[in-house]
Task: structure prediction
Amino acid sequence: MMKVAFKMQLKPGMKEEYEKRHAAIWPELVALLKDNGIADYTIFLDEETYTLFAVQRLTGNSSQELGNTEVVQRWWKYMADIMVTNPDFSPVSTPLTNVFHLD
Result:
């Protein structure tokens, strides 16, 4: 199993709305992620910078590779008002390099 990490940017003051939307994540989005081998998906927030830090364990594709699906495109549009996004509504996302791991 592989692990990937990336960062995104939340707009200031949107922590509660971000948490609210993820607490009610769409079942079809959860199914898509799991069906594509994504597990143990965690997102952390640096409240000083509003940087979101995401980590996923993979046996298949990263969520970053599912942008061509209808449900992911709808989710991006749904989240675009509270995150920094690209013109296609995808979140601006930067892959992070693994520099240390301890089991």
Summary: The helical segments are 15-23, 27-35, 70-79.
